[in-house]
Specification:
heterodimer; A: 119 residues; mainly beta; four-stranded antiparallel sheet; B: 112 residues; six-stranded mixed sheet; five-stranded antiparallel sheet; 55% strand
Chain lengths: 119, 112
Amino acid sequence: GAVVSQHPSRVICKSGTSVKIECRSLDFQATTMFWYRQFPKKSLMLMATSNEGSKATYEQGVEKDKFLINHASLTLSTLTVTSAHPEDSSFYICSARGQGAMSYNSPLHFGNGTRLTVT
Amino acid sequence: SQQGEEDPQALSIQEGENATMNCSYKTSINNLQWYRQNSGRGLVHLILIRSNEREKHSGRLRVTLDTSKKSSSLLITASRAADTASYFCATGSNFGNEKLTFGTGTRLTIIP
């Protein structure tokens, strides 16, 4: 159980275009989803916390107008990278917690990540 | 800034040996979790230890937590080639905050 599906796994886009990444919880309802960015051989950097039905909470230094997050249902959150630039190239990973889970004492379930390359 | 720092950054051992990774953190925590990441993939939760626990086992994994030293260790016994991955510690607090903060990771290579 507790499967998180992230799509696409890889995407290449041109500078100036927008890319949407989907994160779905397949067998549980996720009230909270988290979006991370990971640089090669580095740790995960939290970008934003996405709560179903409300606005996402962005971490300091993350541009909310550039990284649009929508969490419209209990099983789907999307991250849209708008007007992508080569420096946005990275590995983006989503994660989710189950509904009703004591948030700080429960593990996160991760998607398999999206490798974004902006040319 | 990263809460956790793993040590060592990279570790190579022979198959069958034990692998030990350490994690240090800076602030008060409610729990500490260890995750594994295969190259180019998402993270998989391994084990969670609460702040009032000192040691926890799960299969070939043994985790210790020393809150006075703000440190944790992950021991993988009888390592296998399939254990090759990056391992991250992550800390959670309950100060009105659901976030997990990840450490810098240890890249473990098991040599067959």
